[in-house]
Amino acid sequence: MRCHTAWSVAISVALAVLAACRPAPPERAGLTHAQAEEIRAEIRDEVTRAYDLSRPHIADHMLSLYPDSGRIVSATGGRIVTSLDSLRGGIHYFWDNVGRYMQQPRWVWKQMIIDVLSPDAAVMTATYHIPHHTPRGEPHDIGGAWTAVFVRQGARWVIIQEHLSDLPAAPEK
Questions:
Q1: How far is residue 18's CA from residue 1's CA, in Å, rounded to a whole number?
Q2: Separation of alpha carbons 110 and 130, rounded Å
Q3: Which end of the chain has fewer beta carbons closer than 10 Å to its terminal beta carbon, N or C?
Q4: Which uninterrupted H or E stretch holds 10?
Q5: Residue 166 to residue 61: CA distance in whole angstroms
Q6: What is the DSSP code (8-state) at residue 143?
Q7: What does 52-120 look like in DSSP terms, one character per residue?
Q8: Which tens digit of pLDDT belongs to each residue from 20-41?
Q9: 26 three-state secondary structure
Q10: Could you give the domains of the chain?
């Protein structure tokens, strides 16, 4: 009897956890399914376009995802910045000191989950990697996970808060 009760509790807990992991229905955000899908597509398209490494001025495209003014909270590498100037500096630093030395880089989105919270707010969690060659011609790959909170400002979706985490470095051979 005890075993049966323990299994029933375990199964109930597992089902509750699985139910909680499903995205909230769009109706909860006051949207139809089609409206939520349209918002997901807009955000996915903006992010994908901004990180298309075949385009020139990539740092400027990355920065196009952020508001023109106001506070931004960005956490990465164990640090938090809360100003657009600091964020701009960090993105330009990355591109000028790392990105521009990548040979034949491709930004590959492995998974992108976008939950629509309201008609004017959404959160995206994505994983990515960037296969490329070093300046010496050696294959190399970097990647990570990114969670970003988007709000609609006029016709644009912009990031107001984000967290990025890098994949651990591959062990030396």
A1: 26
A2: 10
A3: C
A4: helix 2-21
A5: 21
A6: E
A7: -TTSS-HHHHHHTTS-SSS--EEEETTEEE-SHHHHHHHHHHHHHHTGGG-BS---EEEEEEEEEEETT
A8: 445 555 556 689 999 999 999 9
A9: helix
A10: 2-166 (3.10.450.50)
